[in-house]
Specification:
Its main location: cytoplasm. The protein is an alpha/beta fold. The protein contains eleven helices and eight strands. The protein starts with a helix and ends with a helix. Bound molecules: guanosine-5'-diphosphate.
Length: about 300
């Protein structure tokens, strides 16, 4: 089920509460059943879905009982409305909690002008790393920061050309090499060059490969040691479904990234896997990719995201 469908399904489950004549435990179970089915079909992790159901029930049931005790009195209609609002709010809050790692997660990283900050992008090949590097560079550039890109992907043929092309189109200075095959050496040279030129943000694009091989992780750690990024960002393909959880966990252990960017949420992505990655790694999503073009990058905040999804 694609993300828009998930929104529609969740919305119609919530509407069914509004339309219902009596609100009791049975009605709550019915709406939770629809909500949970929609989440599961969107590839949200089964344990997370179970937790969502339990938390809503635990919160709503005692209050529902209190409200029910008042039914049969002149407060009937008011009590019914209160119960509906209670269920709506509890489900909405739990949906937000699914994409919010909570207050104890590391705060979102906000680069500032006047000092050099290095951002290292990691993720599997095809996730959208190179595209996202330029999108992110453009985003920071529009905020007045001096941004540069470094291509440390020496594994994929054509990676440097792709970054070069994107960077040129976006008018972002870039660094890479056709001859140097050591990604650690390239990233270090690039970062040193732009650091000495007092760039505010240096974004390092790293190699992806298809699987989470140990060589990939070794290389990632060596680049990290060399360039000492202020922030490592995992770029996660929004369309990979259930695999997102294991993948993000493996990257977390290897690179301890501090933020996630989920790509391809414009297309046929179910999105639920990416949602599960937040919980699995206790890390915030900071942006989502919503298309192939330079400006198809949206800032991510849990509440507005859920509100928009519900339409
Ligand atoms: P990398 O191997 O991780 O560097 O991935 P690329 O940046 O080369 O992207 C792989 C493919 O995904 C390319 O065809 C991109 O145009 C496409 N892509 C990246 N981000 C998005 C996105 O947000 N939406 C859509 N629809 N396509 C995207």
């Amino acid at each position: 089920m694609v993300l828009q469908d998930l929104g529609r399904r969740l919305n119609s489950a919530l509407q069914s509460v509004s339309a219902s004549s009596s609100i009791d435990e049975q009605a709550l179970d019915a709406v939770l059943k629809s909500v949970c089915a929609a989440l599961l079909e969107s590839d949200v992790n089964v344990l997370l879905v179970k937790r969502t159901r339990e938390r809503v029930k635990k919160l709503v049931l005692p209050q529902l009982e209190q409200i029910q005790a008042k039914q049969g009195t002149e407060h009937d209609a008011m009590a019914g409305n209160k119960a509906k609002q209670l269920i709506h709010k509890a489900i909405f809050d739990e949906l937000v909690a699914l994409v919010d790692p909570g207050d104890d997660a590391p705060p979102a990283f906000n680069p500032v002008k006047g000092k050099t900050q290095v951002i290292m992008m990691v993720g599997l090949q095809g996730a959208g790393k190179t595209t996202t590097c330029t999108k992110l560079a453009t985003h920071y550039q529009r905020r007045g920061l001096k941004v540069a890109l470094v291509c440390a992907d020496t594994f994929r043929a054509g990676a440097f050309d792709q970054l070069k092309q994107n960077a040129t189109r976006a008018k972002v200075p870039f660094f890479g090499s056709y001859t140097e095959t050591d990604p650690v050496a390239i990233s270090l040279q690039g970062v040193q060059k732009f650091r000495s030129e007092r760039f505010d943000v240096i974004i390092v694009d790293t190699s992806g490969r298809h699987r989470q091989e140990s060589e990939l992780f070794d290389e990632m750690c060596q680049i990290q040691d060399a360039v000492e990024p202020d922030m490592t960002v995992l770029v996660l393909d929004g369309a990979i479904g259930q695999a997102a959880e294991a993948q993000s966990q493996a990257f977390k252990e290897a690179s301890d990234f501090g933020a996630i960017i989920v790509t391809k949420l414009d297309g046929h992505a179910k999105g639920g896997g990416a949602i599960s990655a937040v919980a699995a790694t206790h890390t915030p999503i900071i942006f989502i990719g919503t298309g192939e073009h330079l400006h198809d990058l949206e800032k991510f905040s849990p509440r507005p995201f859920i509100s928009k999804m519900l339409g």
